[in-house]
Amino acid sequence: MKVIIVTWAGELSLELGLNDSVFDIKRKIEQLFGVQVASQALAVYGFELIDGLDMEDYPIIVEGTKIDLTITPLELSTKILVFVKISTRRMNIEVDRMETVGSLKEKIHIVDGAPIKRLSLFFSGIEMKEDHRCLCEYGICDQSEINVMYKCINHLRIEPTPRKLSLLVQTSLGLLNSAIIPVEVKDSSSVNDLRRMLLDEKVLPRDDCFFIHKQRIMQDNCTLAWHGVSSGDTLYVFKGTITREN
What we know:
The protein is globular, with a radius of gyration of 19 Å. It has helices spanning 22-33, 101-112, 191-200; strands at 2-7, 10-15, 40-44, 47-48, 66-71, 79-86, 89-96, 119-123, 126-127, 145-150, 164-171, 180-186, 209-213, 216-217, 234-239. With 246 residues, it is an alpha+beta fold.
């Protein structure tokens, strides 16, 4: 499919395949237009595109979609590339040197889908325990390798008390009128429960649609807590269905 890369200097056409990753797009831009990968930031509808994901992970990107390209001179950029190792997988993720451990966990959640609470990050054999600390405080630099372990959460089989979440649901232009709707829902509710609530209130039409939280497509049968949704978060709703090849 053909997309439009939008820069301050104008618009450029680029041919993409469904298996192209965000990192692949940046490399194509570098090859075609001479803009180094480390200088690039890509975004669609305000979502920054994450290097470890591909076009199938972004169903909002279709033929003719405009992708915003921001270019930062290397001498001013604080971006670095880190290698994140999860079991046998190894992913490239672009981060800011001053980014927090918690922010990196969110990006890994976007790419891998694992609940944030289960993620433990290790660098040079040391666990990065404090989510509020900056990556540079742990000595993370360009091309550092970070290992990810999953915590086992099976301590006591006591169901936590459901918490009430105050959220914003933003609908796209294809769903009735584009709007931002405040909702209150329990974190134990599934995405399907939220969908039914919005249908009953006539916020959504009967058409098929899918939800996105922090750039990750949400799974209908999983709870909001499983997705790491917190009060104040925004969920985005787009028209269409998601079918992934195994």
